């Protein structure tokens, strides 16, 4: 298992890892984007939830075990943030409309014993999404031919679950979130102008030569806000579907190239990942974050001496 004093990566399926190998009640905060069944395939592994053919029964079985494991490792009173979006039904299967993936995740989380408390939505640029997805429901062509099929953008959701019980260590580290920050973040929908779609780590290096699978890292600003909201410095951030380590990059103090924002006081990080290329890239990203943080610290010390 690749690791350092501040981070570790488990190579393997997160479900048995959470259900049997991780210590119970050992995670201070979890953030994750579960594979979207039937929509994206990330690997050819049998344990990849993205390889299920439908959003229905098979995916529910996998995800029900996932939520049982998550509840087992999350400390009482602590938070897990689940990123998702609604999944379009595929015309190739003769279906129309949307699968309520968000609702399914909430029901499965509650069934496992987690408390559903809230969800934020993240707005999307309609023109950008129309161009990227070529969705007729968003395009002007659909608007001008038959508006009955037109709809708005498919937004992202951040579902907030909490483990039952009392949080024994209050999260109240000073000088990390200002009142002005909270006025902005407390809005039910985060603006796409603040959460920039391309504010992600580079995915190209994580793809193998014959790899046509999908990589969709979550925006770094989403990680930054959630980690600052729901952890104290030095606490453990767990990402069950680690990918290229975006959550760890932010938790360890890596800087966004788009916003130049970073977390000043680092957290610890643990994740699971089944794909070797992703693990290798995640290691590089985590080491880069630590290097950036140490250089920033040295520059601050030098500036203080010069003054």
TrEMBL record:
It comes from the Bacteria. SUPFAM superfamilies: S-adenosyl-L-methionine-dependent methyltransferases. Residues 28-284 form the DNA methylase N-4/N-6 domain. The keyword ATP-binding does not apply. GO terms for molecular function: DNA binding; N-methyltransferase activity. The keyword Transcription regulation does not apply. Keywords: Methyltransferase, Transferase. GO terms for biological process: methylation. This is DNA methylase. It comes from Thalassoglobus neptunius.
């Amino acid at each position: 298992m690749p690791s350092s004093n501040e981070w570790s990566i488990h190579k393997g399926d997160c479900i048995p890892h959470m259900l049997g190998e991780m210590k119970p009640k050992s995670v201070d905060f979890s953030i994750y984007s579960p594979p979207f069944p039937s929509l994206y395939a990330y690997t050819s592994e049998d344990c990849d939830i993205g390889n299920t053919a439908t959003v229905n029964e098979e995916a529910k079985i996998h995800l029900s075990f996932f939520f049982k494991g998550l509840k087992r490792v999350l400390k009482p009173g602590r938070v897990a943030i689940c990123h998702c979006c609604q999944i379009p039904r595929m015309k190739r299967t003769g279906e129309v409309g949307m699968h309520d993936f968000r609702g399914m995740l909430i029901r499965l989380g509650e069934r496992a014993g987690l408390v559903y408390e809230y969800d934020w939505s993240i707005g999307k640029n309609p023109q950008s999404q129309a161009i990227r997805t070529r969705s007729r429901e968003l395009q002007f062509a659909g608007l001008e031919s038959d508006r009955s099929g037109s709809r708005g953008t498919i937004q992202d959701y951040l579902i907030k679950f909490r483990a039952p019980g009392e949080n024994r260590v209050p999260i109240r580290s000073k000088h990390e979130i200002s009142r002005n920050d909270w006025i902005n973040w407390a809005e039910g929908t985060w603006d796409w102008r603040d959460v920039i779609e391309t504010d992600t780590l580079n995915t190209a290096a994580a793809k193998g030569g014959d790899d046509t699978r999908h990589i969709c890292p979550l925006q770094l600003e989403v990680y930054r806000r959630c980690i600052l909201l729901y952890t104290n410095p030095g606490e453990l951030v767990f990402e069950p579907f680690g990918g290229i380590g975006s959550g760890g990059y932010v938790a360890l103090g890596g800087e966004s190239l788009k916003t130049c924002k970073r977390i000043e006081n680092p957290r610890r990080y643990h994740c699971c990942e089944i794909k070797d290329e992703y693990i290798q890239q995640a290691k590089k990203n985590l080491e880069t974050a630590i290097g950036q943080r140490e250089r920033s610290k040295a520059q601050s010390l030098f500036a203080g001496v010069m003054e």
